[in-house]
Amino acid sequence: MLAVAVGLVGGAALMAVYGYDFVKAYRALFLGAFGDFSGFLETLAFATPLIMTGLTFAIGMRSGLFNIGAEGQMYMGAIGAVFVGGMLNLPPIIHLIFATVFGMLAGAIWSLPAALLKISRGVHEVVSTIMLNWIAFWLVTYLITYHVADPARAERAVPAQETARYLVIGASLTTVFILVIAFSLIAYFLLWRTTLGYELRVVGHNQEAARYAGINISKTMMTSFFLGGLAAGLAGVSQVLGRPPHWTVFATMGNLINIGFEGIGVALVGRNHPIGIIFASIFYGGLLHGGRFMEFEAGVASEIVRAINGIIILALAIPAALDLVKKIFPRKNRGETG
Amino acid sequence: MCMNRKALTRTESILAVLLVVAIIAGAVGWTQPGQRIVETVTSTVTVGGSAQTITTTRVVTSTVTVERPISPGAIKIAVVSDIGGRGDLSFNDMAFKGGDEAEKDLGVQMVELISKTEADYVPNLETAARDPDVKLIVGVGFLLSEALLEVAAKYPDKNFAGIDTFTQALAVQKTGKPLPNMLDIVYEEHKGSAMVGALGCLLAAHYNELGGNYPYIGGVFGIEIPVLWKFEIGYKWGCDWGLKWYEQRFGKRAPLIGEDGRYGSGPNWRDGLYCPQAGQCWYKGRVLWTYTGTFSDITKGYAAAKSMYEQQAIAVYNIAGPLGLGINQAVQEIATEKRLTSGPPYWIGVDANQDWINPGFVIASMMKRVDRGVYYAALLTVIGKFKEVVADTNGVLVLGIGTKVGNLAMEGISVSTLADLDEFIKMGVDAEKLTGKKVLPMSPEEIRQKVTEMRQNLPSWIWDALTELESKIRSGQAQVPMVLTKEEVDRWRELLG
Q1: Which fold would CATH assign to domain B189-367+414-496?
Q2: Closest partner residue to B11 among A28, A275, A293, by Cβ?
Q3: Cis amide linkage into residue B215, ω under 30° from 0
Q4: Do the first three CATH levels of B69-187+370-411 and B189-367+414-496 match, i.e. the same topology?
């Protein structure tokens, strides 16, 4: 709560400096994002992919990995969804399922090089995932430009066919949101209710102890990367098969870019907990959607809106980020983690 | 282990509580917005001495704004940018400029919404549409076509306009008929391109008269999409028209560019002209052209333009947005090397008046007046003719040279003149204020002086030719081909190179 207050005051100070009416602006922000039903649905639509990329980071953290590859894995998920959803003709429900699964697997497979490098050569995942992100970016840009471009519209890939689209609930929200929530709940039960999840978390707490206890660390890391990749893949899928009105990826990647990195902030705010991440994502989605009301009703320049959102998220993420720093540079024995 | 178990139960109990809340919320009818309580606020606002009573019905859960300015200026128009946003000195800035002018002339109020990603289009349009004072929502750029279709169909009592959009085509595809409240505003770029094509080739003729060696003009294009074919063929057709005009006016072929044998030889070639049928000859191959495949990679614009200038192209037309900066760089290199203060070589600007970017080296710009489009949409809304015009035009308003709506002249294409240079210098000044970066290459006075000098150094017959072409386009005597299909573009490339 203190963090929220600090973030809001920081944003207000910024607006005051530029001479905007911050009370009116905040009012517009919150009422726009949460004040009515269709606004709230739009907020959820913005939250949907963040829940998944946040989960990618969180699963990594829980098993002691600093996996920042969600961005690239999400691109692969999206292009996977384009391949099946846009290029193939299949019967209705089967098409949707096949496109979703294919996209998720594409994301998961993209996480494997980092996992293998880590296990076999000890390459740090920060280095490998960052590099893989860029490879994915240019690979997908290339594929969209030269292989899956919409023949009528060179600036984007072929849109998902009607048979491969999630149903629109309202505003820009589709039923893919339900799948995303289900995936989060499954991830939660997997992490806290199964042996696999237990092993994963033990490796995250203390690798040496885990090894001593006879846990197969390589296998656990592999699993962690793979699960994270599935989540990131689904984030990409959700933007293609579950986001009107375009149902596709632009060659500039404009509708995907940064969703993976924003997931890191969301995961930190949600304390790397699948359920916490859902709420953090909805909050962040509210900032993304509500921001336009600050612009529209209080006239706040769009750059300032982005800065305010950044300040709020930063303030919320700092506590968790400090924990992270402590974890990476252990000085003293910690009691417990949330 | 103990710790874990504790954390477990806590999370799960939170989950359980949330589930219950969700079920209750669902049961209460949160999912049915129609069931919410509605309250009526009656307020009296005095404006300019006269009292007006307004009654607003608002939903309790959203903002209850009691005081609203009620005046003729209460009509709001919203302009939603594409991801280029403010400060592009071209498309989006032009649209906002049109909104500013509508504010000044028509007393409307403009609200801006900048789209940061493609996912912002629909919510931005919808945010604007839901404001009861907003009567017109303008989406800038063809990327907003789908989003406009979705939102315009949802808010039938609001007017929607799109610059370069094809929303009505999508609507016809989907429902079989155009939307009654949506106006796609498109431009006759082929006519403007013909004008600058003629300018380019006459420029070559003039400098060749003075002993120059300029056999070509050039064009740097972006991604090969059908819209760009309009520019390409228009430009080539304009060059041909210009050289034919020269022939008539001076009774001889234009030196070098009109008569040389380098452009081709063979059965259909006669003295540097391509004559597939008797009595019908074309100045083929005078235009060097490259599709760079990008609208953003400035270095590709530089590379393409550089090779054109190496082949002695006198001017290169920028049809790839920011790649113009690459063309400018190629020109500037030559200028620095040869210590030139003015062209040739020149380049030709597009969309906005780009003559100020490198004064003395930009011979002219093919202006596509996005600002006029926004302005006309606002005007039609204010005078209450918007839907009428939509019905008359099937929802597609074409702005070009000599275009009209009823008796109102509504034009949107022109070749830049000295008169409109000032407006665009002001845009540069504004952008400097906005970004804090240096935009203008020199002071506004110096720009004006250099551009004026450059234009006055050209013989008046060049400008006469352009005036004649413009009036012939207006009267319909000159028909610039508008190419939209692959077959047509292939046919014209066969004739013009």
Answers
A1: Rossmann fold (3.40.50)
A2: A275
A3: no
A4: yes
